[in-house]
Specification:
The chain is an alpha+beta fold. It has five helices and four strands; from the N terminus they run βααββαααβ. It is globular.
C-alpha cells in the first residue's frame, strides 16, 4: 500500500459549510472512492482552512486520481465542491492537490 498525504486550502469563510458537506458524502461517491483504491481516506482541517488529506492506495497517487477521473459521480462532486478552494487556478480540487513527500513512517 502507498500512503498518500496531500494539501489543499479551503476558503476560511466557507469552513463550516465544507465540514457540513463532508458529514453527508454521497454514498455513490464513497463507493467510487473505494472502487478506485482510496482506502483509509481522511481529511483534517485547521481553523485557517489548511486541509490535509490522507489515504492509502494499492497503486500510486496518480493511479487513484486517474481512477476517480473516470467516475461520473466524481465530476458532479468536484463541480459541487469547487467554490470552497483557494489557489487552484479554476481547477477542480482533485487537480490542485499538492502531494506531500513521506519522510517517516513508524510501522
Amino acid at each position: 500500500m502507498q500512503r498518500i498525504g496531500f494539501l489543499l486550502k479551503v476558503k476560511q469563510d466557507m469552513l463550516e459549510e465544507y465540514k457540513a458537506r463532508h458529514k453527508a458524502v454521497w454514498p455513490e461517491m464513497q463507493e467510487a472512492l473505494r472502487r478506485t483504491g482510496w482506502h483509509n481516506y481522511s481529511l483534517f482541517l485547521t481553523e485557517d482552512g489548511l486541509l490535509f488529506g490522507y489515504f492509502e492506495t494499492p497503486d500510486s497517487f496518480q493511479a487513484a486520481l486517474d481512477g476517480m477521473s473516470q467516475e461520473e459521480v466524481n465530476e458532479r462532486w468536484q463541480t459541487w465542491m469547487a467554490p470552497f478552494f483557494e489557489n487552484i487556478g479554476g481547477k477542480h480540487a482533485d487537480e490542485g492537490m499538492v502531494q506531500l513527500e513521506q519522510v517517516f513512517y513508524l510501522e
